Amino acid sequence: MKHLLAPSLLAADFGNLQRDIEMVNRGAADWFHVDVMDGVFVPNISFGTPVMETLKKHATKPLDVHLMIVDPDRYIQMFKDLGAEVLTVHYEACNHLHRTVQAIQATGMKAGVALNPHTPVSVLEDILPDLDLVLIMSVNPGFGGQKFIERALNKISTLDQIRRENDFKFVIEVDGGVGNGNARSLVDAGCDVLVAGSSVFGAADPVAAMETLKSI
Ligand code: DX5
Ligand code: ZN
Known about the structure:
By secondary structure, the protein is of the alpha/beta class.
């Protein structure tokens, strides 16, 4: 499949949020990537319900919600009600990951699992058949604008190979430090969804930046 582009709202201008949402609606993007941080799982707090409500009201493309929070089970239904179509939790934040994935899917949302840079793909061996999405973090989660960690490319290739060998259906998403310089190699390695924050919203022309990242 042609790769998807998911601009990360973390890098948007929150003083002009509706304007930036509408720009993504009109642009070459496929999903909205929505980073929710609790200040506990990661050393940063981003946003929660009020921003999600604004997104739900104005976004015309699927909301891809990336939870960087501890004990995400508490909020699964809430994010469903806030319009999430894909809900991704961190492997490192879940004691009972299988239960969490089932609970997400029971609401009708797609379930994703994210891996921090230090977490090997192999830990997902027994849950891969159940997943809709695997998110490979290519920076340490918590902040936009960080440098891409090259090792993520190997993890994507490994995951793609396992997927092909077993005919698994999950999509592979990459998040952190993605831009024109690495987008092509990420897609070639097997990545289906490129998350891009600063390389879209920090560009002089974000509409053109989305176009370029989509057309590589
Ligand atoms: C980081 C977030 C990312 C972030 C990416 O914890 O999960 O989605 O917004 O930002 P860039 O693309 O600027 O690295
Ligand atoms: Zn993210």
